[in-house]
Amino acid sequence: MRYMMRVYPNATRVTSTNFNPLIYWKRGVQMAALNWQTFDLGMQINQAMFDSGTDQSGYVLKPLEAREIQMKPLSADEAGKRPRKHVNFKIDVISAQQLMRPASLKEGTSFHPYVEVEVLLADDRADKKNRAEVPPSPLPEAPLKYQTEAVRDNGFNPVFDKSYTFNITTKYPDLIFVRWTVRNTVQSAPMATFTAKLSSLKQGYRTLPLLNAKGDRYLFSTLFCRIKTDSTDIMVDYPADGVDNGKKNKLGRGVFRSNMSPKTSLDGGGC
């Protein structure tokens, strides 16, 4: 490696919002500088990325897709393409414990919490086959974002008991993130969130911590979920039937046999 790449928010972001770092991580950018004073989606993904390190040293290895050496394809139509991978996983949102009542909620106003589950991908365009095996999403602009039913008048131990099975096709399986957001039906602002990298989530029944709008962890508020991830399948796009690849293969062999560069003194050429 000869150079380090760094990206940072534009100065026109006067409200100190952040961009989505997934766009740059998948292209091999080492440093995605963010506005740490704003705990928005970009900052939540960034925290989840570096919380996944086993040694907590602050360094995380690039995704495998950004470290692999790509061979130049023989066909121009195949240039820049990466193998797609199928990732299937299931998330059961079982319950929550001791949710903090929003400070802005008026006294005497009922508290009806529900949970949103959202899957975040690094692909430029989402595959049309990406889906979750649940009823249609109430948010058509976010096809991988679903929500449980609200539990009325219970922020102490609400039971949601909702299952979501996600079938994802992506070029970057190491850059799949899951975000849980706890909301109240009478407020648009989220009450608590937790974001994690899918590959760093342990399977089975798990208690997930919850963070407030500033990124501080609540002392007692948690989510109780069950996580199950299946093995990853690799899907390669083979050429369509009837395409003659013989000429392409011969051309490739000819290119690698030929050396168009001039001979050096080591090859017997002149000094």
TrEMBL record:
The keyword Cytoplasm does not apply. Its EC number is 3.1.4.11. SUPFAM superfamilies: C2 domain (Calcium/lipid-binding domain, CaLB), PLC-like phosphodiesterases. Residues 2-67 form the PI-PLC Y-box domain. Keywords: Hydrolase, Lipid degradation, Lipid metabolism. GO terms for molecular function: phosphatidylinositol-4,5-bisphosphate phospholipase C activity. It is an enzyme of class 3 (hydrolase). The keyword Cell cycle does not apply. It catalyses: a 1,2-diacyl-sn-glycero-3-phospho-(1D-myo-inositol-4,5-bisphosphate) + H2O = 1D-myo-inositol 1,4,5-trisphosphate + a 1,2-diacyl-sn-glycerol + H(+). It comes from the Eukaryota. One of its GO terms (biological process) is release of sequestered calcium ion into cytosol. Residues 70-212 form the C2 domain. Pfam families: C2 (PF00168), PI-PLC-Y (PF00387). This is Phosphoinositide phospholipase C.
